[in-house]
Automatic annotation (TrEMBL):
Protein name (database record): MFS transporter
Topology with respect to the bilayer: Multi-pass membrane protein
Compartments in which it is found: Cell membrane
InterPro entries listed in its UniProt record: MFS (IPR011701), MFS_assoc_dom (IPR024989), MFS_dom (IPR020846), MFS_trans_sf (IPR036259), MFS_YcaD-like (IPR047200), Sugar_transporter_CS (IPR005829)
UniProt key word Transport: yes
Organism from which the protein derives: Niallia alba
Transmembrane segments: 51-75, 87-104, 111-131, 137-154, 175-196, 202-221, 242-262, 282-302, 314-331, 337-361, 373-396, 402-422
Species lineage: Bacteria, Bacillati, Bacillota, Bacilli, Bacillales
Keywords: Cell membrane, Membrane, Transmembrane, Transmembrane helix, Transport
Assigned GO CC terms: plasma membrane
Amino acid sequence: MFFSFDRKISSFISKKIYCNTVHSPLTSFRETKYRQQCKKQGSIIMNSKKFAVLISIVSISGFSQGMLLPLIAVIFENDGLSSSLNGLNAVGLYMGILLISPFMEYPLRKYGYKPVIVFGGLVVILSLALFPLWKSFWFWFLLRLFIGIGDHSLHFATQTWITTASPIEKRGRNISLYGVFFGIGFAVGPLLTPLVKVNESLPFILSSIMCFIAWIFILWIKNDFPEQTVETNSFLDTMKRFSSAMKYAWIAFLPPLAYGFLESSLNSSFPVYGLRIDLSVVQISLLLTAFSIGAIVFQLPLGMISDKFGRRRTLVTILIIGTTCFSFASILEAYLIGLIICLFLAGMAVGSTFSLGISYMTDLVPTNLLPTGNLLCGMAFSVGSLIGPYLGGVFIQYFQHISYFIVIAAILFVVCSIIFIFGKKESRNHYLTEAK
């Protein structure tokens, strides 16, 4: 039923998505002829069914992430674990992302998108299923690390597939649509947190089953390959491409960095902070869901706005709004309705920061560096996510008289200032490089 809904939505919004790829030496004779024919036309068509499958599994992945962060934070807080250790456990997921990132590009180029997605989905499913077996700080840390590896494999392949499949004039919209369905899953995830009162194992089991159902559909779609114009035979070559992508688009990696900090701290540290300012678990779940729903509501419109007015201008605007909303949230902590409104509006503004960062990166780097750029976006996100929970836990523990929302507002303001000052200059440098 969920897949059917996705198929209808994607069919309505994106009938044809074009993929600029070239022949891979590993493709069959029939696929080679098809690619040669499509190359003359300048594109390969990704049908709506394939797009629906991709956003379906991403939405389920978002669901598992949205559930896991507040769920484990609440479990550990109820067990009396310190907020700093609670935050330390949360960074396991993002350490997994960082550990696997340098090794993802080679298998993607050699085996294609589908095998990487299948691998990532399977790792996530098995890890979620193992949580109920043993309640241990370090065992759960290890499982979260494996979930980070699986999630990043899944997201890296799907992001690259969609970014290379999108024409420039629709790129922001298509990536935003990807973000919408991830956001839908992420918004529903925290609502399972209260099930911990029924049984601590129940949320993990439900999430594992739902991921498995979505994972099955991946087996039905046809594989494809990214553009094969660069060598990928060594770790050193990967590092050289990282350096090249950084020169083109370093400014575009700041929004994913900020969003990683925002998402991880909001979903792992804020539940701890919320319990300490006398919010209930249900109220915390509602606040997190309000932020996620806000992100969903405005994700697609912001993508289309960025297509029309530019990524930099859109990013600066939404970061200013996000800074303002979190600043007001620090004043309205005692009023639940006020907090819900502030987080909803903040979600509408900065909930698209990651997808807009990817769109910005895609505008700045050459096509053959898109897989590398997507990897660096994921790594920037994971660095922010690593900093978020631990810094948040330390802040809650040692600065009890200062609102936690002030930290988030400060981070958003700093990133906004850097993009405002350097973003325009970087875009010009890119176009000059291409002209040469």
